[in-house]
C-alpha cells in the first residue's frame, strides 16, 4: 500500500497487485481510495462498537432488574417456608406479583400454609377429643363400680349400675376397634373378599338389617332400585359398613325423625348409590373437612360420641373396593352422599 499526495485533490491510498499466469505477467490490478473514505470506515466501526457496548449494558441492566424483581418474592417464600418449618403458620406474603408463575407460587404456598394450620388444629383437637372420649366412659365405669363396691347401691339398682357399666365398656371397646380398623386400612392390612352380587338385592338386604337393630322407628327408609338390575363385584360386609355409617349419620341429623332415600343408578362402567336424608345438613365451612380423620363438626361434638373416623373410614373402604365415597351436596334441607362402585 502506498500513499500518494495529489496536491489540492488530497491524499490517496493505492494498492497494486500483479496479475500473472505461469510466471507470465498479464498486467497489474490497482485499487485507489481517498483517505477520507478510509477514515469514514474507521468511524463506522467505532459507532458500531459503541452501539454493541450500549446494547450489552442495556441487556445486563434489564436482566439485573428482572432477576431482582423475581428474586425478592422467591426469597420471601423461602423465608415463609422456614417459618412454617418452625411451626408458625401465620405467614404474610404480598400477593401483588405481576408474573403469573410467581403469583401462582405465592398463592399455592399460602393455601398450603392454611391447610397445614387446619391439620395442626385437627391434630390438637384429636388429642383432646380422644382423651375426652376415652376418659368419659372410664370415669363413668369407675364411679359406678366404686358405688357397688362400697355398698352405696344394692339389689336392682346395683344391677342397673352394672348394666350401664357394661354399656360404657362396649362404647369404649367400639372406639378402640375403630382406631385399630382405621389404622389397618391405612396400612392396607385388611383383606377384601369380593363376590359378585345383585346390586338391588344387596342394598335391600343391607338396609333391612340396619332397620332391624334400630331401637326407635322414627326414620322412614325408601329404596329406589334399578329398573334393570346389574351385578357388582364387591365385598358385602365392607359395603355394609359404609351403609351403616351413612344411615347412622343421617338418622343423627334428623332429631325429630324424617326420611332417607336410597337411589340407585348405573352407567356403562359404574353404579352409584345416593343416600339422601332430610336432616339439618352440614355447615358449609365444615364440608371441606368431613373426610379428614378425627374431624368432628361442632354440632356433632356435643350430641354424639365418637372419634370422627366414620366418614374417612368409609371412604377408605369404598376406594379399596375400587370405587369412591363423596359428598354431593348439603344444605339445611338435607344431605346427599354418593357411593360409586365398579360393575362386575
UniProtKB/TrEMBL annotation:
PANTHER family documented for this protein: SENSOR HISTIDINE KINASE CPXA
Q: Name the domain of life this protein comes from.
A: Bacteria
Instruction: Locate the coiled-coil region(s) and give their ranges.
Output: 102-129
Any keyword Thylakoid? no
Q: Which SUPFAM superfamilies match?
A: ATPase domain of HSP90 chaperone/DNA topoisomerase II/histidine kinase (SSF55874), HAMP domain-like (SSF158472), Homodimeric domain of signal transducing histidine kinase (SSF47384)
Would the keyword Transcription turn up in this protein's UniProt record? no
Q: Name one GO cellular component term.
A: plasma membrane
- Catalytic activity as recorded in UniProt: ATP + protein L-histidine = ADP + protein N-phospho-L-histidine
E.C. code: 2.7.13.3
UniProt-recorded name of the protein: histidine kinase
